[in-house]
Design a protein that fits this description.
The protein is α/β, with parallel strands linked by helices and 481 residues long. It is globular, with a radius of gyration of 25 Å. The N and C termini lie far apart (72 Å). It has 14 helices and 18 strands.
Length: 481
């Protein structure tokens, strides 16, 4: 039996607790040496531990091969890490020159992440999770430091000035707010649905003074909980400031095939799919990696797979552009700028440390996957009993409170001591079950003292890949553009 003291599940799964697990597994306060050999079920826990180790003076950019990889890590980190220290940087969900704009939610998340890069979090390192498609996409340097609109409950507000700011941010003025990227002003009531938010906000004014800010339900238009402030990020990445409009006007003379679209942009008109011209309007090749400092860290998830996906992405774009150039009868000597840059460009301006996560030929002997499917119930139960007997804390991550209670009851029927980790006095050396903690897979580290098991590994069912987008305004395709 281990003489390790009993620790509540919440502490084991906190950033500090996980740092202790991986530090013991690595026999080193710095757990970074474990990264490339870790099983995928340990990745989010490892990133949480690494963020705790590096502290709030640094930033970690996590680059994943696919969108699903990024969404999974971000979803799990929201439970394992400090919520205010984690950001998601998504790619556009539209094709280049498709006459549909990226969603307001995508634009809001991207521009919020760029702004948060300059903020020092209260706890842990700033962690940014992004698929390679987002990391290779060019940015307009004039927008990377764009501050959000901040409205305080005890502040003042000029409705006319706010309407002008919101319009510049790509918001649409409507009579009634129902979707992200919309606002309305009706007398002394201002309704806004911020692009990055899951909630809409109602601002009650008394003259030019803000009387209150409250969350409201767009479905029934009823106000709810009051808040102290609201931050509003743009709903589009194509912000038509004067330099951008001037650039569009200049290009409209030299790029005859794009004359109509560029002229519209030069007069301040936004239209569906206008963001595709960003590569022309951004005069420099700036990537998010260029904004990192030499003290920051880049984690490349499965680097071989990451590079292959990056190469495929660039080739797909070049093929599409070649096809469009033929359709538009673009002169052969006309250079067409690329929206996505080559993989070799990703970190060419970065002077800090680059580390790998997963992808090693050999697997870690100190941190391993469970290696037993839920179909082998007897084998799984035997492994849980064996780990508990050795003093390894077994924690099961349940998707909901109902499934957590069911798991505790099932384990007890099998003669295994089990408790909810929310219990004030859990049974010593019992298996702990944590509710509302959806993860895809877990890991075992006997040396680290923790075995984390996902509910799906017990049931044998894969968790659905749910999109995080809700409340989107539908994009209307106008073929007359």
């Amino acid at each position: 039996m281990s003489d390790r003291p009993e620790i509540l599940g919440q502490d084991y799964l906190s950033p500090k607790g996980l740092l202790g697990v991986f530090a013991r597994a690595a026999s080193d306060p710095d757990p970074m040496a474990l990264g490339d050999s870790l099983p995928s079920g340990a990745w989010s826990s490892y990133i949480s531990a690494l963020g705790e180790y590096l502290g709030n003076k640094k930033r970690i950019l996590v680059a994943t091969p696919t969108l699903n990889d990024a969404r999974r890590l971000f979803s799990e980190l929201r439970s394992l890490y400090y919520p205010d220290s984690i950001n998601y940087f998504p790619p556009w969900e539209t094709l280049l020159f498709e006459r549909v704009s990226p969603s307001a939610y995508t634009a809001g998340q991207r521009l919020k992440t760029l702004w948060k890069l300059g903020e020092e979090p209260e706890s842990g390192a700033r962690v940014i999770v992004a698929p390679i498609a987002a990391l290779l996409q060019r940015l307009n340097p004039t927008w990377t430091s764009l501050a959000p609109i901040v409205i305080l409950a005890d502040g003042s507000l000029d409705p006319s000035e706010l309407a002008s700011q919101l319009s510049f941010f790509g918001y649409r003025r409507e009579y009634q707010v129902e979707h992200r990227g919309e606002f309305s002003i009706r007398g002394s009531i201002v309704d806004i649905f911020p692009s990055d938010s899951d909630a809409a906000y109602r601002i009650d004014l008394f003259g030019d003074e803000v009387d209150s800010i409250s969350i409201f339900d767009p479905d029934n238009q009823r106000s709810g909980e009051r808040v102290a402030k609201v931050e509003i990020y743009p709903a589009t990445e194509l912000l038509l400031d004067q330099p951008t409009k001037t650039r569009a006007a200049e290009l409209s003379f030299s790029l005859g095939f794009a004359k109509e679209s560029l002229e519209r942009l030069s007069t301040g008109q936004l239209f569906d799919g206008a963001e595709s011209w960003l590569a022309y309007l951004a005069e420099s090749e700036l990537l998010i990696g260029d904004l990192l400092a030499k003290d920051d860290l880049v984690l490349l998830v499965e680097p071989s797979r990451l590079r292959a996906r990056a190469n495929d992405l660039v080739e797909e774009e070049r093929s599409l552009v070649t096809s469009l150039a033929s359709t538009w009868k673009v002169p052969k000597d006309t250079a067409i700028p690329e929206l996505h840059l080559d993989f070799t460009r990703l970190l060419s301006q970065f002077e800090g440390e680059v580390s790998f996560l997963g992808g090693a030929v050999g697997s870690s002997t100190e941190v391993q996957p469970w290696g037993i499917s839920g179909r082998d119930q007897e084998g799984l139960l035997a492994k849980i009993r064996s780990l508990s007997a050795l003093g390894t804390k077994v924690i099961i991550a349940a998707d909901s409170e109902g499934s957590a209670n069911s798991l505790v009851a099932s384990l007890k029927r099998e003669g295994i001591s089990a408790s909810l980790d929310s219990d004030l006095h859990p049974v010593r050396n019992s298996v702990l079950v944590r509710a509302n903690f959806p993860i895809d897979a877990g890991f075992i580290s006997k040396k680290g003292g923790l075995a984390l098991l996902a509910e799906g590994e017990i049931s044998g069912r894969r968790r659905p890949n749910r999109s995080e987008k809700r409340g989107e305004r539908s994009n209307k395709v106008n073929f007359d553009d």
